Amino acid sequence: DLGREVPVTYRMQYDNMCKVLDALHIQSSKKTHLNRGGGARRAEDNGASEAQIRRAGRWSVEKMQGCYLTGLPRESMRAMAGFSIHPGGFFLPRGTTTPSKSLQQQIFPGVDDILLQVETGKLERDLAAQGFLRLLQYLRVVLIQDAVVLRQSQPHMRFLAHPVFSSAEFGAFANEMKPALETPEKPISVAIVEALPELTNFLDTVQTNQIAQSQLAEHTNDRVEQLAALTQQAYVSLSGQIQAVAQKQVRVIVTVQHQSLPSSPPPTSGALVSSPPSSHAPISWTSSSSTPPASAFTSSSNSTANPASPAIPSALLRL
User: Where is this region: Disordered (predicted)?
Assistant: First the structure.
């Protein structure tokens, strides 16, 4: 009886494999690596791709497979087990009947309590421990369902002598499963997969495309709603700015500068000559309004300046 702390050496593995091969009358030069080559060839014969076989044997492992994928080559696993490489094409009659919860808890007792303690933090929250305990919960159902069939085909198996498989509850479950084993009826979905695999693949592709289009439409609707909300916010903000500008008071400052008119010679006799109108005085204004005030325009005088009169000084008027 080996303890948990004793490692399994290569020699121990080799000796046990030799015993297994001798018991099965198998002659092979390979012992410990026998399943490596045989499994790869079996997977290839059953339709598994080379990439799936490499992934199953971990030959030429890439970063994506080692870091991000689960490491389970499902296509190769199905092929090595003798099933179709396409999912959904296998029906297990005994899988249609599920044992009661009380019967399941008789297999691997205490698993539920330990898993609860791990999940609640009473024990160390180890992901590997959680996965292993959930696997034991799944194997409960598998063992009970298989035991019903094995009792008929292999009644001498040692684990069938366990009291669980002799209890009244297990007997009731076996009677419940009996009709499913005697008259198995395949679901329509499985029958279609077996009869028309290409049609099944086409329907699966159509369904996948419909799901993708539905997800894309939902994403597009979300983006449209976001853009509509942003547009509404921008409109409200711009309207507020326009109203604020419209309510502001405009201050206009106008500067008008008049210059003195130059003196002209006296008119000649016998003719009436009017002095030419002088050009407008320079006018400037500063305003935020679009129209200058009317008072900003001042025309010069049309009369002739009096040379005897003093010059008009420049004035700076502010309105």
Answer: 31-50, 259-319
- Residue found by looking up tokens 């409960």 in the block: 140
DSSP 201: H
pLDDT 10s digits, 16-38: 989 998 888 887 888 888 877 77
- Crossing angle for the helix pair 34-45 and 50-57, nearest 10 degrees? 160
**Can you tell me the distance from the alpha carbon of 137 to that of 148, in angstroms, rounded to the nearest whole number?**
18
- Give CA–CA dist 150/157, Å, rounded: 8
Q: Running DSSP on this structure, what letter comes out for residue 160?
A: G
- Looking from the CA of 314 toward its CB, the CA atoms found within 13 Å total 8
pTM exceeds 0.70: no
Reported as a single tens digit per residue, the pLDDT across 229-255 is: 899 889 888 888 888 887 776 566 767
Helices (H) and strands (E) in the chain, counts: 11, 3
